[in-house]
Amino acid sequence: MTSHPYFPLGLEIQDYRSNESGLFYIVGLFSTGLAVSLCVILGLAIMKRTSMTSADKLTILWFALSGILHCFFEGYFVTHHDRMGPAQDIFGQLWKEYAKSDSRYLVSDSFVVSIETITVVLWGPLCLLVAYLTTIKHSLNHPLRIIICMAHLYGDTLYYATSLFDYYVNGISHSRPEVLYYWVYYFLMNFVWIVVPAYILYNSVCLVSQALNQFESETRSKKKR
Length: 225
Hints:
The protein is about 70% helix and about 0% strand.
């Protein structure tokens, strides 16, 4: 059996090869490409609508970030999940680094493949659509935000729950115990997709509720005339 740094110990990873590139190199290259993409998207959005609030800009960046990660980074996993072990391209090496916090990504685990496929097919494109709808202030903007934020909250909750169930009930740990891998990679990086969607969800629900209350109030006023 080929030795590897993943938990649980003794996990069989087909054709595993350790990363050839350093961590700072692959993270730096990925971050640079992501930053450039976000800057281009924000620039195009500002050109489309010059009178844009800071809140709108941050919202566009958030949904653009989510859409890019879902469609391309997670899309890579969905199309390569059965051959992640020997991968040496940038995305493959990044996934192998992240898998130190969740080795299910290297063994075609049925849950992560399924949830990531749904994310790539549905939520990724919808995130990019919401970024555009926010730019043009379309009426479907907030209803779609609510749907996507609920999907993020539900998906992340399931992600944590299935991993913790394996740990506490089955005695199987998918993550290395070091702070970097468990608390930064596994917990913090995913928790962002709970905190931010929860905030956006709250704001959108409040706005839709206010709009409906105003509409109902105006409707009642017209009937009284």
